[in-house]
Design a protein that fits this description.
mainly alpha; Arc Repressor Mutant, subunit A; two-stranded antiparallel sheet; WH_DNA-bd_sf; MarR family transcriptional regulator; globular
């Protein structure tokens, strides 16, 4: 039982640190998006990033990939289309469907945002030894993967 108590204590501290991190990230994102928003919602950057990294997708596949509902993704991608950052193209596998594709302008917007984000993250961890930075990346990847695969109520999105 002592192990379970210790596990819960560590989980509680991890929860506290995650809330603290999310608060700081939220603050940084708000400041960052004011400087680089180019008129689109912060949430739309995640969609643009996915399309740049993973390539064209149908709206339903994009919604599944970002763990969101189709109506939300539809609204956000409409904004990206209106800003010329994403375009709709006929799906070669099914002419009735369309694919969302990042435009050159979209790639440029994403690249600028990524470079700015990278610069700030590098500044935050500049004093860390390289081995600790690599360990953090490895552990965050593992934590993100485990959260993506965790379905406490059995729902799968």
């Amino acid at each position: 039982m002592a192990d379970q108590g210790q596990d819960l204590a560590v989980a509680e501290e991890l929860g506290h640190q995650l809330v603290r991190l999310l608060t700081m990230v939220g603050r940084a994102k708000a400041q960052f998006s004011q400087a680089t928003s180019e008129g689109i919602e912060r949430a739309a950057y995640a969609l643009l990033a996915h399309l740049v990294r993973e390539g064209p997708k149908r709206i339903t596949a994009l919604a599944d990939a970002v763990h969101s509902d189709t109506s939300t993704v539809s609204r956000q991608t409409s904004s990206l289309v209106a800003h010329g950052l994403v375009e709709r193209k006929a799906d070669p596998e099914d002419g009735r469907a369309c694919l969302l594709v990042a435009t050159e302008a979209g790639r440029g917007t994403f690249d600028r945002a990524r470079a700015e984000r990278t610069k700030h993250i590098a500044a935050v961890v500049a004093d860390w030894p390289a081995s600790e930075r690599r360990t953090l990346v490895m552990l965050l990847d593992r934590l993100n993967t485990d959260f993506e695969n965790y379905h406490p109520l059995g729902e799968v999105r």
